[in-house]
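Homework help board

Subject: predicted structure for assignment chain

Our instructor gave us this sequence and asked us to write out the predicted structure in token form, then describe one feature. I got the tokens but I'm not sure how to describe them. Can anyone check?
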Amino acid sequence: MLFRSLVVSFSVFAVGYFARPLGGIFFSHIGDRLGRRRVLIVTILAMSAATTGIGLLPTYAEWGVTASVLLVVLRIVQGFCLGGELPGAISYVVETAPRRAGLSVGIVFFCVNTGVALAAILNLSIHQWLSAEEIAAWGWRIGFLAGGVLGLVSFFLRLSLEESREFSRIRKVAGASAVPVAEVVRKYPLAVIVGVGILAVTAGFNGLLFAMPAFLPQTMGYAPVTAILAQNMCLVIVSFGLLTFSWFSDFLSRKAIVLTGTALAMLLSLPFFRAAEAHSVNLVVLFALAGVVASIYNGVTIPIAADLFPTRIRFTGVALSFNIAFTFLSGLAPLGAA
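My token output:
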């Protein structure tokens, strides 16, 4: 029964990821033709509404299968919008501060990881303050409602954004692409493939990390609070670590940094899972060490991918590379592991 519930949970989790490529194509078309600012405003509003909707969703006992269908629909809306949100943010900051593109992208993902860490802390607090029955009855809604409120705050802040100056300049000089996705596929197919390959290590790591609080207690016998603490430690270290290495990448070789981090991940992945399975190393310490390794490549993979495409179709190129990598290697990683 535990295995079955784990697979069902990770299947719903994966559904949102499979909406990302379609959302990426849709929103990147708008972003490369009309501008990044509009996309960033629309996506955050829609994601906030979907997240709040999940928090207010009636239970299966109240609405039956309709509640399950609505949950999947809202997850699809989240994934669809996120498919345009992150590539749009990446394109925007790279074009706004091209000389410090590494640090700019690092700040974006520092904020993304910090948001996940705050969600994990809230999850930990809920598990400490509420009983299992209270969590099942209503406590699980708290995180979604809090996320929806914070999303609305972000929406109002984004209304003050100005369009990327580099995009505005290129659009005036060369004009917007008629069909950006067609131009990317026709002229830059190798860049997309390379982008997917570069982002694969980050996508795989993130997919497993975000699933660990559900995965570890049910498969390796860890207490839920211990698994959440370990994830939090890893997220905090990755957040500050990737910020550091993304800053380095504006002065040092990004290729050397990403190859070093990827090589360490390849060498240490199997020992990591063996130690976790055997309970031979304190789980928080183990995840802290994993966070150090992940910091090295997480800070530079995305700036490298953004550099593969010219401004005219950067949003679309980044969206294709990013969403393909994260759909299959982040969205399916927890389900595949289960």
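Reply (TA_rk): Your tokens look well-formed. For the description, you could write something like this. The two ends are 13 Å apart (CA to CA). That's the kind of observation they're looking for.
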